[in-house]
Amino acid sequence: MGIVAGLDSSPEFTRIVVCDADSGAVLKQGYAPHPVEGRPSDVDPQAWLLSLGEAAGGGLLEGVQAIGVSAQQNAVVPLDAQGNTVRPAMVGGDKRAQVAAADLVDALGGREAWAQAVGCVPQAAQPVTKLRWLNKTEPDAALRTAVLLQAHDWLVWQLLGRPVRRTTDRGGASGTGYWSAATGSYRSDLVELALGHQAMLPEVIGPAEAAGTTPEGLLISAGTGETMAAAFGLGIGLGDAVVSLGASGSVMAVHPEALVDNTGMITSLADATGMHLPVVTTLNAVRTLRGAVEMLGLSDLESLSDLAMKSTPGSHGLVLLPYLEGERTPNLPHTAGTLSGLRRESMKPEHLARAAFEGMLCGLADALDVLRGRGVEVRRVFLLGAAAELSAVQAAAPALFGAQVVVPQPADYAAIGAARQAAWALGVSQGTLDPRTPPMWQGPAAQVLEPGEELAVGQAVRQQFVSVREQMYPGAFR
User: Fold this and answer.
1) DSSP states along 431-457
2) Residues 6+ apart with CB under 8 A from 208
3) If residue 190 lies in a helix (H) or strand (E), which one and from where to where?
């Protein structure tokens, strides 16, 4: 089929990969940082176009037949009736909007009402919450807002020359807080609840559909959010979960139907293939390890890992409940971390180091169990993030998760997923691919770790953690 490109516009940079459309092999790539200092809450979206142009320099896209766009989620680009930006795009985990999130939850009648309406409870970062913040703090800008786009919608629209038709995909729409993955439709009443009036929303097109073709004949696929693009780039399917180790953690899995969770612990997203991506978030992942590094006077995560490997599973009875920033899963927003099981023989640096790793991973296993408890099958766990390379993580994760663990080699899977989407749309347009079946690309190079004989030991460590959690916070998961 030739060559296709995938573009990932993350919060800090643009990465472009050019791939063989049949195999997915990466042939060349480009990169450019956004011309923006730090990670501000407001960004002129022209910055994304500038870095896109720089990343595509040197003839990178010569011969490319189709391009897919992935971009940071939760970025809202408010446009006026003429298609001009009303104000800079509101991006990132916007702490300004925390009060607005609480306002919205109350305005619709509580967490359960939101979960039933759109499969998620408003958080500060979500587009629907940012609209509420805009309405309350910049009413003039809110009043002039006539069209709402997300980052990948806006970039696709720009690449196509700003046509009258504006599009998005199920994946991107499912993160807005005003589109339901369960019903596949917008809740425009929730836009009005947040913004104070109706606004035009992009048309949601199918996973294999093209958003359009540029005057030069370059096909542009639907595009999607970074999370969905990364899942597609990894090639995950039913039975697979992805655990992302950032400062906070997230667990997502592929499921054939949308999950409505009245507790609000599950965010019901759609994926880039027509399936669903239920996501459970924890507030404390690698920040737990970094705290332990400082507490023990170490230099970095590698030295913490080396120290932890001198201990044994169960950390001599030490259990760390890693709720350092409060916690979302379970819902304990005002709590703190707990170190339990201190005895004279356990009061050694290596046991505390091990307890930090086990506490972090058991917290993520709790999140996995939220999905398992709703019938989500988990046979393999893909472990992402720099901390996934640490020996202490790899030694403990398979037995604590009770599943095979796959650690893919670092790559920009969001850009690769966007390129795979482009190949799909191209194949469908040429009549060589089925719109229900994406192209079969080679999977990522990865380490595969089995729980093996350690499974029983790991489950005993997990039970030790659960016992302490239940003692401290009885019924936290009910």
Assistant:
1) TSS-TTS---PPPPPEEEE--GGGHHH
2) 222, 424, 425, 428, 433, 435, 436, 438
3) helix 188-195
Between β-strands 26-33 and 13-20, what pairing exists: parallel, antiparallel or unpaired?
Answer: antiparallel
Instruction: Round to whole Å and give the CA distance between 462 and 401.
Output: 9
**415 contact partners, CB below 8 Å, separation of at least 6:** 6, 7, 8, 15, 16, 17, 29, 70, 229, 233
The model's pTM: 0.94
Where do the H-state alpha helices sit in 327-379?
Answer: 349-372
Query: Which pLDDT tens digits describe the chain residue by residue (478 residues)?
Result: 699 999 999 999 999 999 999 999 999 999 999 998 877 899 999 999 999 999 999 999 999 999 999 999 999 999 999 999 999 999 977 778 999 999 999 999 999 999 999 999 998 899 999 999 999 999 999 999 999 999 999 999 999 999 999 999 999 999 999 999 999 999 999 999 999 999 999 999 999 999 999 989 999 999 999 999 999 999 999 999 999 999 999 999 999 999 988 888 999 999 999 999 999 999 999 999 999 999 999 999 999 999 999 999 999 999 999 999 999 999 998 999 999 999 999 999 999 999 999 999 999 999 999 999 999 999 999 999 999 999 999 999 999 999 999 999 999 999 999 999 999 999 999 999 999 999 999 999 999 999 999 999 999 999 999 999 999 999 999 8
Count of other CB atoms within 10 angstroms of residue 403? 23
Tokens of 8: 């990932």
Place of tokens 């023990």: 296
In order of 82, 206, 228, 383, the CA distances from 404 in angstroms are 52, 32, 22, 10
